[in-house]
Amino acid sequence: MTKVFPNNVSERLNSTPCSPNGNGNGNGDAAILTVWKKSLLLNCNGFTVFDCKGNLVFRVDNYLAGHKGEIVLMDAGGKPLLTIRRKRLSLGDNWLVYDGETAVNPRFFVRKQVNILNTKCLAHVSSGSNSNNDNDEESGNITCSSSSTTGKNLLYQIEGSYTQRCCAVLNKKRRRVAEIQRKESVGGVTFGLDVFRLVVQPEIDAPLAMALVILLDQMFGSSKRLSH
């Protein structure tokens, strides 16, 4: 049976000890994570994430009968790292990201990009202070272009195709700080869409990068029909 956790390709990209916090090994190297779109618990939807040595680093376990507008990203021991909540009473697909299990002072605001003329851009990530203001981000005036990255609160934008597991998180300087890539086994056999790689550069925390993966799945993946 083909192993889900990282193969020789990821080990070659990051042969030094892995960092579950997404800061590489302290020498500027990327952290290579394997994301499995499956919960380790029965009767749950979610994700299981391994580092380059096959160690469990993140998990998401959503009970099928639970609250569909809230998702908790946990570490391997079950400690909540980030809580993702759908923004209420808002037009469009808007989400707030909080530290731990708190429900105040969101750290990030994530908005799905809806523009039939620009299908390359998937979503915008802004600082949490932007979540309750009537500004360009909330009104949908920000678009994926070089000028949009000059917005005061805009931190990242996500481009590519999540359904093809080929997309990137770009910072204000258009540098790729995280990427979602298809994963192949040592023999070259693809795992399909439920197992893929998440490459995290030192410029972004791994929990946030994984939270963005979860949100992309809510917006564009099979989880979309389960989140309402």
UniProtKB/TrEMBL annotation:
It comes from the Eukaryota. Residues 1-22, 128-147 are annotated as: Disordered. SUPFAM superfamilies: Tubby C-terminal domain-like. Gene3D superfamilies: LURP1-related. Residues 1-20 have a biased composition (Polar residues). Pfam families: LOR (PF04525). Belongs to the LOR family. This is Protein LURP-one-related 8.
